[in-house]
Amino acid sequence: MVLLSGHATKFTWIVLVLGWLFVGCDSGADRLPLDRRPSDRSQAGGQAVSTPPTVATAGSARAERHCDVILLNPEKVSDYLTLYDQMPDAVKDAIREHHFRDYSVYVTLVADDKSPDQYYVVRYYEYAGVSHQADVAGLERNADYRRWQEACEACEVPLAVPKDNQWWTPMEEVFHQP
Question: 15-53 burial, b if ≥16 CB within 10 A, otherwise e?
Fold first, then answer.
């Protein structure tokens, strides 16, 4: 994961706090191949090794857990919170129809005396469909969702240069307590 300069310390702190908040994020570290376990970060040049989404079991249905992070423009915090507070029912319905469950968004301010204050946004959701890629594409074709998403993106600042159409930076699960 490539971080913008000056954000590494804050990002480490936020990941630790969010690990505590997100008991729903499963590391699966003991089930990863040896070369992908967290202890092997030194072999990846200190970079976090990307892992596939973890499959959760909710009753008899299986769901993939996803957790992502992005920065928030400090001047647009109020606008961003309003977008989520007043999310149209059509957007909520579209998210649900495309098999996204337990969708949660968290915002926190990380402040220290070494760098400017920064807002981080973390989203967590479970995907319970058959093809995540197809459902994301279907969701993005929904006009109501697309308008709402564009308004949200106007408030967001990616942690890294977006690649493969990933605006948000995926977080690596490091622990789960079922």
Answer: beebbeebebbbbbbeebeeebbeeeeeeeeeebbebeb
Domain 54-170, architecture per CATH: 2-Layer Sandwich (3.30)
Residue 75 neighbours by CB distance under 10 Å:
8
Q: Which residues of the chain have pLDDT under 70?
A: 1-61, 162
Distance CA 162, CA 118 (A): 19
Amino acid identity for residue 159 in this structure = L
- What pLDDT sits at residue 42? 34
| Max Cα distance, the chain (Å) | 49
Handedness of CA 21, 26, 30, 35 (dihedral sign): negative
Beta bridge partners of 72: 119, 156
> What local confidence, expressed as pLDDT, does residue 19 receive?
43
Distance CA 98, CA 128 (A): 9
Report the pLDDT value the prediction gives residue 170, as an integer from 0 to 100: 92
What is the pTM assigned to this prediction?
Answer: 0.66
